[in-house]
Amino acid sequence: MAQLLLLALLQLSAFPFFSDKTETPAPLEYSRSLEPRSVLIATKFDSLFTSVAERKGFNGNVLVGIHGTAIYKNAFGYSDLKTREPLNIKSVFQIASVSKQFTAIAIMMMHEQGKLDYNDTVQKFIPDFPYKNITIKQLLSHRSGLPNYMYFSGKYWKKSGKYLTNEQVLDLMIKHKPRPEFLPDRRYKYSNTGFAMLALIVERISYMPFDEFMEQNIFQPLGMQSTFVYNPRNSKTLEYETKGYNKNRRKAYVDFLDGVTGDKGIYSTVEDMFLWDQALYTEKLVKQSTLEEAFTPASYDYKRDNNYGYGFRLDTLSDGSRIVYHGGWWRGYNSLFVRRLDDHTTIIILCNKVNWSFGEIEDLMHLVDSADM
Q1: Is 97 assigned a catalytic role?
Q2: What is the mean pLDDT of the chain?
Q3: Domain count, the chain
Q4: Position 76 in a domain
Q5: Closest Cα to residue 92, out of 264, 350, 342, 372?
Q6: Does residue 117 fall inside a structural domain?
Q7: Could you tell me which residues come within 8 angstroms of residue 171 by beta carbon, excluding any fewer than 6 positions away?
Q8: What is the pLDDT of residues 158-187, one digit of tens each?
Q9: Which one of the listed residues 38, 79, 91, 97 is annotated catalytic?
Q10: Average pLDDT value for residue range 303-320
């Protein structure tokens, strides 16, 4: 073990653990401030992601946190494959379905404020909603049975070049009433439509656009200065912008569905996402008892360990440790946000070229635990 620690410390100068750009290592003194175990973990993650970047084309940013300290963060590849502008640790990525947990927390905040009950029906807030007996809880836990707007919108949306909005998704459902997939609470099925409707409920209750509500009530209070909800009518000017690419390295172009948010649409950085992670261990946004309910499996008929709470995926690893996580993919971006509650381990991976070559969650957690062997 002592030899491994010595080797890791000697290798630190070769690893840009805290670099802003991939070709500029941080001062060695900063890395040496880490505990030996953290040094080993950082070394292992740098070895993995250097390898998958070189051999499998991984292109993105990575952060690993242990008990509130970011022990490893690095950027691999380019923000623009054409110009070969390097990614920066402050580069901004679309986090895709990882956005759902933010929408869920907004709903939880309103629940704590007495503005809604999880058993309220959608029609209490959206009277003309065309599907009866669907509750807030069923939207949060993907048990509503709502049809997927990503499928039926293409059939009914005829405004070429115009972004679809959450309100317009509602209008399409009112006008055409696409068939639901099953009766409410019959079973679990992942639903982007449900979270788009939750974002609309946030707007109806707060009398604010969803992007403004999130900015004022979540992003600003937590100091997430590079995080925002995409709004095509109020675009942001970014210092560290990225362009998204599909697996074949083709640039992912804008889509009329980009205007729908709540299920996706949040842009962020690995550092801002770590601020979010740390806030979830406090009561800055909601009580821990509220989060505990959100982290409780909500699909009693879903037999596997892998389950869903309110906006968060849940799993139990082979060693019995409890994982709260979410992944995402949308138009040239993919993301993974993992929290091991037992020891406050966090892994954040944001990519602007679709690539899952870094492996499974259990494999990543094994890198953390192998430092104890």
Answers
A1: yes
A2: 90
A3: 1
A4: no
A5: 350
A6: yes
A7: none
A8: 887 899 999 999 999 999 999 999 999 999
A9: 97
A10: 88
